[in-house]
Structure formats: structure tokens, C-alpha cells
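Exercise 7. Predict the structure of UbiA family prenyltransferase from Haloarcula salinisoli.
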Amino acid sequence: MQAHSEYQTGRDWEQLRALVRWAQQFRVVQGAVAAAKTAFAMALLGVASPMPAVIVGLISFAVYTANDLADLEEDAINTPDHSSFVADHPAVVAGLAVGTFALGAAIAWWGGGPITLAVACVPLGASLLYSLPVTLGGRRLKDVFGANTVLVALAWALTVTGVPLAFGGLSVGPVAIAVCLFFYLRSFISVEVFNVRDVTGDAATGVDTIPVVLGVPRTRQLLALFEGCSLALLVTLMTVPTVALAALGALPVLGYSLGLTWFLGETGRMDAFCLAKDAEYLLLGLVALALI
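Solution. The predicted structure, encoded as C-alpha cells:
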């Protein structure tokens, strides 16, 4: 009886892991992460409505789903199971991306007007610049060292911060600038963690990411520096009475993130490592929920 129970528990865990892996590969996790980021930004900015988080979550899911169509060559090496599905069902993937983006855009227009919609579309514009050959040499910005990460991190920092501001009709002030910079640093770190996972495919297809050019050990040192900068920003925000509690609640999450960064590249299970990295933002989302 005990052996059967242990067997059933093992099966349940395997099914849960498969479900989480599916959610990560098919961009459900990316949508949830973006929504959680936005929820924490809302807690810092004093925006109570849940709609900005819904908007950014939908837009994120749509953009990353569409990006899968542009990254088939690299993904065939890095995530072959997912890449094969995208290659076999391009119309389904494209339809899902367009439909989800249209829903997010409609909610942005209906709830916040044209400014909210414009800010929500920033990741789409960045994705087009990222994936199309727009440089003088005909290269994609994705293939240009440094430009790829800067573009992605800046786009998501502006969106995560700007959609709540526009939706709430708030002006840009020192706190908003600090929040945007905080999420720029966090997004930069996350992008490069995923680039470590994808280093083999990127190197094979000529994509010059930071891990490809500098190597994983130096990338880890650079990201640790960025972790320290974002921690300093969070401590600075703690001096502002209106956001002190949210900033304080995020401190353990940044400690968790720094611990992960310290071991970047030390495991062969980078999919699980990236999922653990994504969990950082889900924890920030829980901090935001606790303050509502």
C-alpha cells in the first residue's frame, strides 16, 4: 500500500512538472510574470485597479508567442520540443498571438484611452525592432551585442511602469522614474539569465548575447552588480513613506534573486533554473496582493 502511495505521489509530481514545463514553454508563465511585475509596480505607484496587470499580462503573452515564430532557428537548438510545435502549427501560434494582443489592446483602449494603449504597444514595437533586419548591415538588433538586452529590458520597464501610470492618470515623478529604473535592472538580469540557457543556440546562429561574448562567469559577475544596484534603488524607495512598505516586502525577494544569480551556470538544468528566476516576479506579485 505504501509503495502504491509513493508511486502515485511520484506520478503526481511528474504531471505537475510537465504542466509547469508546458506553461513555461508556451508563454503562459511569461504572461503571468508580466502581470505580477505590473502588480508590484502598481503597489509602488499607488494604483489600485487590477486592469493594468491584466493588460500587460495579455500583451506579454502575445509578444512572446509571436516572437517564437521569429526565433525558430535558435529555438530548434535551445527548446526543440517547443520549436517543433511552433513550426508545425504556425497559423495556430500566429492566431493566438494576434487574438491575445487584440484583447489586451482593446482593454487598454477601453479602460485607459489612447495613451494607455500606446504605452501597452511599446513591447510590440520593440519586438519588431528586435526581430527584423533594421541595422545598416542588415542584421537584427537581436544579433547585436548589448543592443538586444537593452532594448528588451527598456521596453518592459517602460510598459510595466507606464501602463499603470497612464491608466491611473498619474504624472511622471521621481518615484515613477525610480520604479522604471528598478524594473529595467530586473528585466536586464532576467533576459541574460535566459540567454545563459540559450547560449548554445545563440552562438550557433550568430546571436551575440552577453553570455556568448563574455562567457557565463563574467556574465554572472555583471548581473551580481546589477542585483546590487537594484537593491540600492529599493532601499532608496524605502525612504518614501508611500512606498516604504512595498519596498520592504520586496527585500527578501531580491535576496532570493541574488542567491540564484550567484549559482548561475552551475546547473545543467537551466529550464528549471529559469523557472525559479521567473518565480521572483510571482513573489513580488504576492507582495503586491498582500498590500491591497
